Amino acid sequence: MEHDHAYLHQHNIPHLHEAGEHHEHVHSEGTPHVHENTKAVLNRLSRAIGHLESVRKMVEEGRDCSEVLIQIAAVRSAINNVGKVILEDHIQHCIVSAVEHDDKQALDDLCQAIDKFIK
Description:
Strand order of the largest sheet: 1-2
Radius of gyration: 17 Å
């Protein structure tokens, strides 16, 4: 389920304003950079959000617990896959750049993020 532009703004969901436009991401040090997979990530997140809303409706309707749990597992898998895309993009661009500039903090931050992501 794709959401319209107003919905994305209303729910503070990052998104593109023009087809194919890259999304700038700003790290804590304030340096903006562009990620290749932003549009794909946003599309996947929109689908996961729609799927999670469907799960909420299932609960409201009193659907079978087993069905709900299976759908929650599907949402979790979708979110994990989004995280993998973001992680790969981060490693291929941000971390490569950090290594080139001997930015040990970026590597430490990556390790902390991976630790939290896999919990």
